[in-house]
Design brief:
Rossmann fold, four-stranded antiparallel beta sheet, 20 helices, elongated
Length: 577
């Protein structure tokens, strides 16, 4: 159990851990001194003599300061010790909170960095909703578990202070308490195992709920159009109920444990008083102090057990996050030592005998692909669904390294860290556009943060997105979540303009016009005609009739090139067949 949490704490500066440990020790020490002061105070008030080496040394130390050993002075020192302990506790709790947030923030940042740096082929085999659950829910549960762990350590530290104080007054009574605590801890073993099991069930329930929420948001329009929103709401509520049921089960276990320990504690305290008074002849002042110690110890034991359950419950998400970091690091792309200048294509982009196969599929996604994309040319790639078009685009943009063959830029083989460098010069426009709920200006600046207003307007004109000039707020128009306030064609043209601001050498449009009406499709085709000759353009689509301005058309089928030629040649063959 300790090893995963040790890995979690390695993510924070060591000095912060030492500060927390020092404040924890100081808090326990001041608490112990304050408690021991109760013994001479009670002895003085009762008029009884109580001989104890530690208490005597404490009294001698007070006398050495010149202070009279009166109840008022002892009470004042007791209050002072409590005040000092409270100040230390404040610093300890604040430091613990910083530790918790530091671990959570570092875990979350590491997950996002590993996610963005992982190899694309590995990422495609993972569930995207699991990433969301990992970064948001699982990391938060780690933070809660860490907080419970620090509370556990704090409770145990205070318990040790009480036991030490009790041992100073009566070693036999303190030993009896320690044995009873150990027996109680051993008796809770089954409950701790149940807490761990519930942690694993909550992990799966949270991931299922995140997936359902993601689907309900991304598919909201489709669900409403199909009139199935009520069914989906019921499914989402059922997922939420499963998560809540797991939380309630853990709460039930911890509450039952606390209630049981309180009852047992009351019985034990009564037994201690009876044993101490009747059999061990403990003096009254010491017995009253011991009763106070033990009455404070029992809630600490209950709190420690409760916090331990929560720490154990947080182990499955911690293991899942650590496993993700390990797996994603093992599948990380080779990062270049430094990002070089942009890669401008002077001659051509080529694929030489490229082959690629996915693990979960038996037929190859690509096989024996040979093609050349001359500088300034436009190439259309067509074919049925599953023909390998998008996989070919992934290879061209350097997202995936082929299993066989090579990607060549001006005759230079692109592999390893060079793929990351090459992607700086590639722009990709998918069918489903990605826009922030922000202004048009802010969305465009993601293509080039240093772009001026004139550069933004020029890119919009090249992308046939001059409609922005006619909007009431122009570039400062807010587009809504993922551009929902714009039409599909307007969103596509904005993403083309954003891509052009990055000054790419290769522009890939993957099914970018397949869902558009004829007018918007015509506008985008006009934009592509204006860009012809400025950069290499790859158009991926189903329909041959929309790609007549391409210099060459490549038809894929089952991962292989079925036909290749000009638009007129393939069009003529299609008409005569």
């Amino acid at each position: 159990m300790i090893a995963p949490w040790r890995q979690a704490l390695r993510r924070v500066p060591r000095w912060r851990l030492w500060v927390f440990a020092a404040l924890l020790a100081a808090s326990s020490l001041t608490d112990g001194v304050g408690l021991i002061l109760l013994v001479p105070l009670l002895s003085a008030m009762s008029g009884a003599e109580f001989h104890n080496a530690v208490a005597s040394r404490l009294v001698d130390g007070i006398a050495a300061t010149g202070l009279p050993l009166t109840p008022a002075v002892v009470l004042g020192l007791f209050v002072g010790a409590v005040a000092l302990r409270s100040a230390i506790q404040y610093g300890r709790d604040l430091q613990g909170l910083r530790l918790q947030h530091d671990v959570v923030d570092r875990f979350r940042g590491d997950c996002i960095r590993h996610l963005n740096r992982a190899d694309w082929r590995w990422l495609t085999r993972q569930k995207h909703s699991d990433y969301m659950s990992l970064v948001m829910t699982d990391v938060n549960r780690i933070g809660n578990g860490l907080h419970s762990g620090m509370t556990l350590v704090t409770s145990l530290s205070a318990a040790v202070a009480y036991l030490v104080a009790a041992a100073v007054v009566s070693p036999s009574m303190a030993a009896l308490t320690a044995v009873a605590g150990g027996v109680g801890f051993a008796a809770m073993r089954g409950i701790r195992a149940r807490a761990h099991q519930l942690g694993g069930q909550q992990l799966e329930a949270n991931r299922a709920m995140t997936a359902d929420v993601q689907h309900s948001v991304s598919g909201l329009k489709t669900l409403k159009a199909l009139s199935t929103d009520d069914r989906h709401i019921e499914r989402l509520i059922a997922s939420i109920s499963r998560v809540r049921a797991g939380q309630l089960k853990l709460g039930r276990i911890t509450s039952l444990t606390t209630a049981s320990q309180q009852i047992i504690g009351a019985v034990l305290i009564s037994g201690y008083v009876l044993i101490g008074w009747s059999y061990l002849q403990v003096p009254l002042a010491a017995l009253v102090a011991l009763t106070f110690f033990f009455s404070r110890l029992m809630p600490l034991f209950a709190s420690a057990q409760q916090m331990l359950h929560r720490v154990i419950n947080a182990e499955p998400p911690l293991a899942a996050v650590l496993d993700f970091l390990e797996q994603s690091a093992a599948h990380a792309e080779a990062a270049p030592a430094q990002m070089a200048a942009r890669w401008n294509v002077a001659q051509s982009i080529g694929l030489q005998d490229v082959g690629l196969r996915y693990e979960e599929r038996s037929p190859p996604a690509l096989a024996g692909i040979d093609l050349t994309l001359p500088a300034g040319s436009t190439t259309a790639i067509i074919g049925p669904s599953g023909a390998g078009k998008s996989t070919l685009a992934d290879v061209l943009m350097g997202l995936i390294e082929p299993d066989a063959g090579h990607l060549l830029i001006d005759g230079v083989r692109v592999r390893g860290e060079m793929r990351v460098r090459w992607r700086q010069s590639v722009a990709y426009v998918p069918q489903e556009v990605f826009l922030f709920d922000d202004t048009i200006r802010a969305n465009l600046l993601w293509g080039n943060p240093a772009a001026t207003t004139e550069a933004l307007l020029e890119a919009l004109d090249k992308a046939a997105a001059g409609f922005v000039r006619n909007l009431p707020n122009g570039l400062d128009t807010v587009v809504g979540a993922n551009g929902m306030r714009l039409s599909g064609g307007e969103r596509q043209r904005l993403t083309i303009a954003r891509a052009l601001l990055a000054r790419p050498s290769l522009l890939i449009m993957d099914e970018a016009t397949s869902a558009l009406d004829p007018a918007n499709e015509l506008a985008i085709r006009d934009a592509l005609r204006r860009l012809h000759g400025d950069l290499i353009i790859v158009l991926i689509g189903h329909r041959l009739a929309t790609l007549e301005h391409a210099d060459q058309v490549i038809e894929l089928n089952a991962g292989r090139i079925a036909r290749m030629g000009s638009w007129s040649e393939l069009r003529g063959a299609e008409l005569t067949s």
